[in-house]
Specification:
Length: 117
């Protein structure tokens, strides 16, 4: 995936600041703000992995469950017209809205992206 790193199922962004001459990023898809930086690709990767490990250790020390990047559920704001159409379509197919949305996303992603993770 472009401009992203993965470690222990956490994803980190990759950015470069020409002004500061530093690579930087943050752990994406969690509520906590966890950032890191490095002077080159290797040091950025190391800093990212250390940031993930530190985040997990801190959560353990505080006795709280760390955020998971992807829980398997999310809210979709479609507008009332599309919501109605999808709900009625699901009803006529004898299924539910979650199943329809999941199938639609799977088809869309299979067709276009080639995302394997």
């Amino acid at each position: 995936m472009k401009d992203m790193m993965c470690y222990k199922e956490y994803y980190g962004s990759v950015h470069y600041s020409d002004e500061d001459r530093v690579f930087h990023g943050k752990i994406e898809f969690i509520r906590s703000l966890v950032s890191y930086e490095g002077s080159n690709a290797e040091s950025l990767r190391k800093a990212f992995e250390e940031a993930v490990d530190d985040y997990l250790e801190l959560c353990a020390e505080e006795g709280r469950k760390p955020d998971k990047p992807f829980k398997g559920s999310f809210n979709v704001r479609t507008g009332s017209d599309l919501h109605r159409k999808a709900a009625l379509f699901a009803k006529t197919k004898g299924t539910n809205l979650n199943k329809i949305v999941t199938e639609a996303l799977e088809k869309y992603l299979r067709r276009g992206a080639g995302l394997n993770k």
